[in-house]
Write a structure and sequence with these properties.
mainly alpha, 2 domains, 248 residues
Length: 248
């Protein structure tokens, strides 16, 4: 009796979700349904209800995203980098993932950074130029982008020449890359700014000063956190401020 009741309840749910049922008519059903048949029907209807609920949830998310002007399900309009992420997305500079997420809190790696820079600047490179970094094979997804940024001096390898494309981009490395990539937007400056964790003469000190002088960072007088990994949302903020003064 309980099995039959559940079957009827699930059938009703499907009728509400689909408007009609593809099940056989009552005349085609056995007069006395055995438990095995009932359980089989329950499993089938359970599967259909689950699928319909998932489709309904996805549709609701899509409608909400469209109405709010969002490109990603995990970046809502209250996010501090929402406008910058949407701006870079509209320019085709950044992309999300196949599941419609942007994953703003994830670290951006060096290979992804190379792709964004090369894409925005439309960098080109001679066909016969071979990437000098020994740790990146031609089959790597960012090989061509890394080849371009290396050729133009935007990104180089470390002391042993390795590009480390899968390593997270640190905030100090981000400062250096942006200054090299956008010298007109981030000009040299003689102004000196102070930070609680960045000493004069240290790696990226000059570049961070240039970012501050251009109004791209507001960390003056506080900690810049040079060794901290750069998140995808933070890179979107800095990149937008660099290429568009309206975001500074």
């Amino acid at each position: 009796m309980k099995a039959h009741s559940k079957l009827l309840a699930l059938t009703g749910s499907l009728l509400m979700l689909y408007g009609c049922s593809s099940s056989a008519t009552a005349d085609e059903q056995p007069e006395v349904a055995g438990d095995s048949w009932v359980n089989s029907e329950i499993r089938e209807l359970d599967s259909k209800v689950t699928e319909a609920e998932a489709r309904t949830e996805q549709l609701s998310q899509d409608i909400a995203m469209i109405s709010e002007g969002r490109s990603f399900i995990d970046v809502d309009v209250q996010h501090n980098a929402f406008h910058e992420i949407e701006y870079l997305t509209s320019l085709g500079i950044i992309n999300g993932y196949s599941d419609q997420t942007f994953r703003p809190s994830n670290s951006i790696n060096r290979g992804q950074t190379a792709a964004m820079i090369a894409r925005h600047l439309s960098l080109t490179v001679p066909d016969d130029y071979v990437l000098q970094a020994p740790d990146v094979s031609k089959s790597h997804q960012n090989y061509d982008d890394l080849r371009k940024v290396e050729y133009h001096g935007v990104m180089t390898g470390n002391n042993d020449g390795h590009m480390n494309p899968s390593n997270p981009l640190t905030r100090s490395q981000m400062a250096v890359v942006l200054v090299r990539a956008f010298p007109d937007e981030i000009p040299e400056t003689s102004n000196q700014y102070t930070y609680t964790d960045l000493r004069e003469g240290s790696f990226s000190y000059d570049q961070v000063n240039q970012l501050a002088d251009a109004g791209i960072t507001n960390r003056v007088g506080t900690a810049f956190r040079p060794s901290e990994h750069t998140t995808r949302s933070h890179f979107a903020l800095f990149m937008s401020r660099t290429i568009n003064e309206d975001y500074r």
